[in-house]
Amino acid sequence: MQTSTFAELGLSAKVQAAIQAAGYTTPTPIQSQAIPVAVTGRDVLGIAQTGTGKTAGFVLPMLARLESGRARARMPRSLILAPTRELAAQVAQSFEKYGVNHRLTVALVMGGVSFDDQLKKLDRGADVLIATPGRLLDPKIGSKLLLTGVEILVIDEADRMLDMGFIPDIEKICKLLPAQRQTLFFSATMPPEIQRLVDTFLKDPVRIEVAPPATAANTITQLFRYCPATEDWEKREALRDLIRAEQVKNAIIFCNRKRDVAILLKSLLKHGFNAGALHGDMDQMSRTATLDAFREGRITLLAASDVAARGLDIPDVSHIFNFDVPWQADDYVHRIGRTGRAGKEGRSLTIVTVEDIKQLKDIEKMLGAPVTWIGDPPTEEDIAEGSRKRRGRGGAKRAGDSRRSASGREGRRERGQDAGAPRSARGRSRRPERAPQPNGNGAHEPAANGVHPHNEERQPASPVRAERQPASPVRAERPPRQPASPAREPAAAKPQRQRRERKPPRQPWEPREPRPRDRDDRVPTPVGLGDHVPAFLRRPVRSGH
Fewest CB atoms within 10 Å of the CB: 121, 126, 233, 314? Predict the structure, then answer.
């Protein structure tokens, strides 16, 4: 069923007034088909790519159905499960935007937020409970909740739940819910595990599929840039060239690993770009502050991991840059789906190395057409070499490339290192080069003059260390050792200590030389009788007796 206005979807007057206040006039395909069915109370299985308005597709009918009734303490009336904190917070913002004419209580239960604040909202009664599966099953929250009053269950981004390992948690939660309920199930793809979950917990659902799964929107221009080298600093240089060549209003830059996000952010800030970062290791306060700054335009570039690839409602993203080709082709669709939303134009640019050829082939197979290159595409030799390599999800290190730069001078410049800088300035990843040694004429020569470097006097590692540990005065006055040279005159021999003449050994028939105590020149000491008495038998002589 196709409609042209929200007034034909069966929504209440309060909900329609909120939609008009938000500035929306035409529903998206998923909204026009899912909302009329959801308002009637039937189960819905919605399959649509990201960025098609799925959030409003279940928020609007929920508002219409929850207008009557009242929530009780610790017994929510509806439950929405989201895979990530960002998606859960976005759903809460949608309820605030479309529910301005309602007096519904919305409770948000997710990690990174104090348990006490969340329990206070639940104690007052929640009409809508938005939660991540892990935090909902936490004993501090789950033991104080009663889910038997849930009337509507929403599972959003179900395939993302599968990737993050939340399917067992969802099964546990569904067993705690009443059998008589409405279930709204949304997913971008339908792998077998998701289909099994649908068959188990949905009752005669209406299947709504507005687009083939895992296909990109037609409003997105997809471009690829081949980078022959595999060094990260060369990829970062190629990324900066792409950013400067594009008219970027704001952009999200995706990396496969969280540690690469931090390194990329440091490089962007160093080269004068207005950038921020978003990844799973950040606390909730920092993640929320970064997203708010990006939405408000205070941050232009957002380096992110796949935690931001799905579900985030950032409507005006002009560009998507893939610093790393995603390991799965489906993730590529979800990444670039952050741009070109709601019929707007968007551009995505992906950097490809020789190690990404296999992933690129998967993307071409999914898109059904060859990709468009910026600059020179990879040669047949590169494709053949890349077909033998694949860097999997485990995160193996990049192998060396035959065309890797031998000097590495540009890499040190990009990392802020200099070949002649001390070790403290260049970091501790490399051993510092040994300083040249002075020769006899005061000039400097390399250590390859016949003298082993370990025999030469070492230079201080840094000026700080030299000031912290000054040399002793004796060593300071000692002149530096001069390297050996064939033309150098031999030094004068040091005066040797005079040795005493050794007498020949005494023969047996020769008289022995008398010892000092036997010599006649010593005056003999008279010996008395008392000298032979032991000390403990001696008595002191008293005067006067």
Answer: 121
